[in-house]
Specification:
alpha/beta, UDP N-Acetylglucosamine Acyltransferase, domain 1, 2 domains, 11-stranded mixed sheet, 9-stranded parallel sheet, 30 strands
């Protein structure tokens, strides 16, 4: 199959380039790189050793993928960056390799990383996420599937952002963001559930209402988190979304975002 590779691109002979891949002038692809079929690599993009890029991705000019992590604990151990299929990496995005903590920085399929986004070491970004311009994700942050983060926001190391949640622009995330919620501020606080996003993804009115009832119990009825979980399990009908929310909260190490500026809520509170 045809490869559309500029003779002014720099490609290491050990790199594995799939079929129908385009590499524009002045791009650099190093050794120990794998690029899937149909992917486009723009001019001046740099892909360092350890990158594993899926099919039909777009890597825009100036992006730097799989550079060494900005972590003083890094001792040169082997690690990778793994990107799924049909993911777009816009201009000047930086994605650092993993460290001994996890060994890999990963981005799922059908995800959009807008310009100037930074993914620190060992970050895990799920499928169908949108990470807007100039968002900064510190090391070992986890974004579950269908997360949206607004422009110029920052996420503290080790934080987890639950599935189908939305972080508004210019926010600072210092605690875990529970699934299906919207948060805003510095530090962020709960402002509701992500109704628009859930509707767009086909959640029924009944599912949305059930999610809303769960978060009313957690955030709006004067209970601490442990009391809220007990109430939800005792008085609300069990649903997959309830199980997802409770499992997320119980697994939280940093505590989940609370509904007032500067407050967080944990399982122990």
């Amino acid at each position: 199959m045809e490869q559309l590779i500029s003779n002014r691109a720099e490609i290491h002979p050990d790199a594995k380039i799939g079929n129908n891949v385009t590499v524009e002038a002045f791009a650099k692809i190093d050794k120990d790189v794998v690029i899937g079929d149909g992917t486009w690599v723009g001019s001046n993009a740099i892909i360092y050793p350890g990158a594993r890029i899926g099919r039909e991705c777009k890597i825009y000019p100036g992006a730097v993928i799989s550079a060494e992590p900005q972590d003083l604990k890094f001792k040169g151990e082997y690690s990778t960056v793994e990107i799924g299929d049909r993911t777009t990496v816009r201009e000047y995005v930086t994605i650092n390799r993993g460290t001994s903590a996890r060994g890999v920085t990963s981005v799922g399929s059908d995800t959009l990383l807008m310009a100037y986004t930074h993914l620190g070491h060992d970050v895990e970004v799920g499928n169908h996420c949108v990470v807007s311009n100039s968002v900064q994700l510190a090391g070992e942050v986890v974004l579950e599937d269908w997360v949206v983060i607004g422009g110029m926001s920052a996420v503290h190391q080790f934080c987890r952002i639950g599935a189908h949640s939305m972080v508004s622009g210019m926010s600072g995330v210092l605690s875990d963001v529970a699934p299906f919620t919207k948060v805003f501020g510095v530090p962020v606080y709960y402002i509701g559930i992500n109704i628009v996003g859930l509707r767009r993804r086909g959640f029924s009115r009944e599912q949305i209402d059930n999610i809303h009832e769960i978060y009313r119990a957690i955030y709006q009825q004067g209970r601490n988190i442990s009391q809220a979980i007990e109430y939800v399990q005792a008085y609300l009908d069990p649903t997959p979304e309830m199980g997802q929310i409770i499992s997320f909260i119980k697994a939280s190490k940093r505590g989940i975002v609370k509904n007032a500026i500067g407050q967080t809520a944990s399982v122990e509170s």
